[in-house]
Amino acid sequence: MNLHVIILAAGKGSRMKSDTPKVLHTVAGVPMLHRVMSISKRLAPEQMHLVLGHGIEAIQDTLAEQWSSTNIVRQAEQLGTGHAVNIALEHVPNDGISLVLYGDVPLITAETLERCVAIARAGELGVVTANMSDPAQLGRILRNETDSIEAIVEFKDATLQQRAIHEINSGILAAPTHLLRGWLAQVQPNNQQGEYYLTDVVALAVNDGVGAQGILVTDENEVIGVNDRLQLAQVERIAQRQHTDELMRQGVTFADPGRVDIRGSLSCGADCFIDVNTVFVGDVRLEPGVVIGPSVVVESSHLGTGVQVKANTVIEGAIIGAGCHLGPFARIRPGSNFAPGVKIGNFVETKKTSMGAGSKASHLAYLGDATIGADVNFGAGSVTCNYDGVDKHATIIGDGAFVGTNSTLVAPVTIGAESFVAAGSTVTSNVEDQSLAVGRGKQRNIAKWLSPLKRKQKSTPED
Ligand code: UD1
Ligand code: CA
Prior knowledge:
- With 463 residues, this protein is an alpha/beta fold.
- It is built from 9 helices and 35 strands.
- Strands 15-17-20-23-25-24-21-18 form an 8-stranded parallel barrel.
- A hairpin with a 5-residue loop joins strand 8 and strand 9.
- The chain has 2 domains: 222 residues, Alpha-Beta Complex (Spore Coat Polysaccharide Biosynthesis Protein SpsA, Chain A), CATH 3.90.550; 187 residues, UDP N-Acetylglucosamine Acyltransferase, domain 1 (3 Solenoid).
- The radius of gyration is 32 Å and the shape is elongated.
- The site of calcium ion has 3 residues, from loops.
């Protein structure tokens, strides 16, 4: 039986106090809605239907290629969760299963959803529930003497006795589509909020003699709904902890798993060590034995086996070969591609630059748009002048070249293999292999020279 997933995300999310639609706020670097969609995708649905209203354009703009097959259903007025599902069902065939999710419940797992869908496949209504230590204003699950679910009552409509119940409705449910459609047709907005409640389908199902089965999650965190920034922060911490727990199981050591942020995906080989205040952004891969931090940022990069990254280094869009040493205080920008054993020291910036094995820029340098061979030494204070105010130009440095301290290489320029640039040179024309380039004013020494002070002291003897 075909599965259709319906994700509700039309609400305003006023409690976020934000110009950004609630479901686009991120958890571990990924918009909540995208997380829910990725999790749903693991169930291989026939189609996903997104019910959108507030912020529909902004949300649609985020659904490029990856989600282009999603069906967008516009809910102009938010008349309630029941209404939202009802209009989505106009696009769903009768002969399958419908699974309803909320765009603001981002930690739900595919395993729980599978269990819920299995109940629907057996012809019943599956409802994901949790026993919450603090059930707050969530809908309460009403069970009879034999422990069967009879109905869901919203907090605002609940009696004091019902409010004392700790089992809550996550909002997630699944049922055979034709049954769900029939129940929703009977839902009326006769409640405190004057809304069409999706939750009313539970009592209607029971009334029809169709069983409502609860799927009680063991970890209540799975069903936390995000309504404000406090809950967003709470969910963020949980997601971060899930990431670090998983990596620790795979053999990564964190100096403190509570002081690292992973905003995207981080995959690590064994025996990596990650120090405090390190932030990973986008897709990052660390090969075995990488040592990072403290206070390092790594974005969308691949670090080879045994790479060492010292404090306060920022790496972005780079490929770093095995055994490279970076930092402290290095800035490795997009397009940096280092062969094994490269050494980049403090206050060195690289951009669109490849470096051959064993090359070094140990202090205070800028390397932009450069192709550098193996075993090159790029001296302290030296820079590639890659920009003329209009265009960027390339610098090529051959194997084994030595660029002395404080050199200025005006691109486009080639420094030949095993050549030597004298310290303080401004190099404006190509240097042949195995040559010395000296591009600086010649030193003059003036003998017996007195400074103005010394001269003054000589002409007016002390009294
Ligand atoms: C809902 C449930 C409640 C459950 C809680 C879990 C109902 C009536 N109540 O309450 O039992 O404990 O979720 O978090 O379903 N939405 C639409 N269109 C609408 C209304 C809502 O798309 O017309 C979307 C919202 O954007 C949101 C989701 O549905 O993503 C839930 O709506 P919300 O108003 O937050 O429901 P709750 O009052 O939290
Ligand atoms: Ca909610």
